[in-house]
Design brief:
With 208 residues, this protein is mainly alpha-helical. The chain is built from 10 helices and no strands.
């Protein structure tokens, strides 16, 4: 129980910190509405399972100790973040009939369920910082004698908790009060998220 509480607290701090996941959920919520943001959040939760899988079988050590492999992952992640950032930076004013609609408060564009899921999944799955997080989590805070089933349980919890957190964020961003606050200038927040994504990509390339 103490091990689980430690993991839960560390995860809470990590998931609440601004990063690519946060930026893409905010971006999709503003641009495409609650439904797209929710499925993006589910995709992020599924992306966690990628990190959990290789951490459980010990591949995270291989990734960390093989510089070229980690570099490849970093560049792939940076390229994807730049792709997302360009789309966000190109956002502009849209015509809205009802900007306070709670289901899609500021968005008139649509995003398919499949694309929303893939966006969330790739954003998290390609994030090398998440690799380092799970590397430290499964080597420094989880005992080597902990059974495979318990580790798997931890992984499922982390995936579900992450998905629920970002679903909650998606819900908050799509409430009518937030929509009124954002109003017709929501595309500026979208562009801000684009700048954040671009900055994260540059940081990945520059600092590795």
């Amino acid at each position: 129980m103490q091990e689980f509480i430690t993991i839960a607290l560390i995860h809470l701090v990590a998931v609440a910190s601004p990063g690519p996941d946060f930026a893409i959920v905010v971006r999709n919520s503003i641009s495409f509405g609650r439904r797209a943001a929710m499925f993006t959040s589910i995709g992020i939760g599924l992306g966690i399972l990628v990190h959990v899988s290789y951490s459980i079988v010990g591949l995270s050590v291989l990734i960390k100790t093989t510089p070229w492999l980690y570099t490849v992952i970093s560049y792939l992640a940076a390229a994807y973040l730049i792709y997302l950032a360009v789309g966000a930076l190109r956002s502009g004013p849209t015509n809205q009939e009802d900007p306070t609609d709670s289901k899609s408060p500021v968005a008139t564009k649509t995003l398919s369920v499949k694309k929303a899921l893939w966006t969330g999944f790739l954003t998290n799955g390609l994030n090398p910082k998440a690799t380092l997080f799970f590397l430290s989590l499964f080597t420094a805070f989880i005992d080597v004698d902990t059974s495979f089933s318990v580790k798997l349980g931890y992984g499922i919890y982390l995936a579900v908790a992450t998905g629920l957190w970002f679903c909650f964020l998606s819900y908050l961003l799509s409430t009518s009060r937030v929509a009124q606050l954002i109003g017709a200038k929501g595309y500026w927040l979208d562009r801000t998220m684009g700048v954040l994504l671009l900055g994260l990509a540059v940081r990945l390339i520059w600092y590795g």
